[in-house]
Amino acid sequence: MADLPAQLLIEATEPAHRYRLRAPNIPETAKVARDMVAGLLAATGHPALVETARLLVSEVVANVHLHTKVPLLSLEATVRGHQLHVSVRDDDPHGTPWPPAPRTPEAEADAEHGRGLLLVQACADAWGTVWHGGLHPTSKSVWFSLSDAPVLKAL
Q1: 3-state SS of the chain: helix, strand, coil percent to 5?
Q2: Angle CA 3–144–90, to nearest 5
Q3: Going by DSSP bridges, is the β-strand pair 83-90/72-80 parallel, antiparallel, or unpaired?
Q4: What is the dihedral of CA 84, 48, 45, 145, to 10 degrees?
Q5: Which residue, of 3, 71, 92, 155, is most buried by count of CB atoms within 10 Å of its CB?
Q6: pTM for the whole thing?
């Protein structure tokens, strides 16, 4: 472990603050999930992450509501050190949760949907999708990470 940067060593030994929410796949769940993650960040001393986290949680939860018919979704939020990791899981393995292909400016101006994962891609430090269940997936998760770690400049 001596080859790891000092910040990673510190964060690896810090306790994780992890919360899980299993909720109905209804429009109101986005607000409940936003408020839960905002409360976790406030309680663990990460106020700088709250607004971005609220936006991204809204987008990934709304994505489940808009694009699946599952009755429930699961959200897991973990804070460890300077890092927030959020994962939203649903039991519909179909569909590809990736940002849409670029559209013409005219189509983009009138579109009511299709920007959520673009926001996640633009605002998160990292994000991705995981399919669960092996060769024949039974569910998927969309996750993102944010950090409020101070940026260390090279000399």
Answers
A1: 35, 25, 35
A2: 130
A3: antiparallel
A4: 0
A5: 92
A6: 0.80
Q: Which residue has the tokens 């709304």?
A: 62
pLDDT tens digits for range 14-66: 789 999 999 999 999 999 999 999 999 999 999 999 999 999 999 999 999 99
Angle CA(131)–CA(135)–CA(139) in degrees, nearest 5?
A: 30
What CA–CA distance (Å, rounded) separates 2 from 98? 37
Residue listed under structure tokens 């009755």: 71
* Distance (Å, whole) CA 84 – CA 145: 5
Which residue type, as a one-letter code, is found at position 2? A
**What are residue 127's DSSP bridge partners?**
144
The length of the chain is: 155
Question: CA 136 to CA 115: how far, in whole Å?
Answer: 29
